[in-house]
Specification:
The protein is mainly beta and 100 residues long. It is built from 1 helix and 10 strands, in the order E-H-E-E-E-E-E-E-E-E-E.
């Protein structure tokens, strides 16, 4: 499922709601996939946006085949990562995410 890219609709959006589609460990960090995002990924000389996902710091953002992956410093409890390091589709509080 491709990520809805909110930054194309509003380049100045700083807070948004989203649903966690997946999260998994990658070394000491976590990759989090949302159904939609305002975080712009690194690419074409443009640095990635940084911010907060449910209390976890977003340290990098990349796009793979239309899916935006947010690299976070930890799995925050609000992300609801399950026993097998996958996340159910869970609505998060408003606003759940913020760019800084």
């Amino acid at each position: 499922m491709e990520t809805v890219k909110l930054y194309y609709e509003n380049a100045f959006l700083r807070e948004f709601d989203g649903v966690v589609v997946d999260c998994r460990p990658q070394g000491k960090k976590w990759l989090v996939q949302l159904d939609r995002t305002a975080f712009y990924p690194e690419g074409g000389g443009q640095p990635a946006d940084h911010g907060i996902l449910g209390g976890a710091k977003v340290t990098d953002v990349h796009e793979r085949d239309g899916v935006i992956l947010h690299t976070c410093d930890r799995a925050q409890s609000v992300i609801f990562c399950g026993q097998f390091n996958t996340c159910p589709s869970v609505p998060l509080p408003t606003p759940a995410f913020a760019l800084v």
